[in-house]
Structure formats: C-alpha cells, structure tokens
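Now for our target.
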Amino acid sequence: MTDPSTDPGFAPSDLTDERSLGDWKTRYSDPNAKKEIRFEAIYLSAHMFGVIVVVFVLAVLERKGVLANSLSQSTDSNLAFGWE
C-alpha cells in the first residue's frame, strides 16, 4: 500500500501534473497508443452520430404515423408506450 502522505489521491491539489506552463503536448507518443485513441474517438463518434440518426428516424416515422399504426395492432403497445 502506498504512503498516504505521498499519494496524491483522486484530485491532487497540483493540477498541472508536474508540467511547466504551456507544456500541453501529449505524453502518449507511442504509435500504438495514438492508434488506439484514434480508434476509440471514431468508435464513440460513430455511436453518438448513430443515436442521433436513430432518434431522428423514429421521430419522422412517428410523425408520419408509421409507428402508431404498427404499434396499435400489438397487444404489448400499452406496456411499451405507457404514455400514449
């Protein structure tokens, strides 16, 4: 276990991470780390964009009445959409 007097904890008082002013470049200079960071950024961006597209498509289908017609025939529609 680490010594509590030297452990900076979750939010240390020195937020500069022992860097000088203006030293903003990443410490992840490993090409594999950069590739993984780039992959994760693309992956998360695609999911966020996909959620927006799905919500938009569902809103358009709801406005056209396509969802209301198909769900009104279902016996589970009252359970799935309790607010209607």
